[in-house]
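Researcher: Next sequence.
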Amino acid sequence: MIENAQVNDRPARPKSSPALDEARLRQQAIGVKLRQIFDEVVSEPVPDEFLDILRRADAKSDKA
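Model: Next structure:
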């Protein structure tokens, strides 16, 4: 019987420095903010002018 086995299969992470921890937290915060901004942009409606351009392009390709 193995008494000192870890609960999961991942090896134990060595102690990291406070600067490294801060850098990881900063990167994580940037990632969260970028995802929020991306989600906002994706949910914006497509401008009517752009839709008109796409419709005209489709009409031209259907005639060709």
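Model: The mean pLDDT is 86. Residues 23-63 form one domain.
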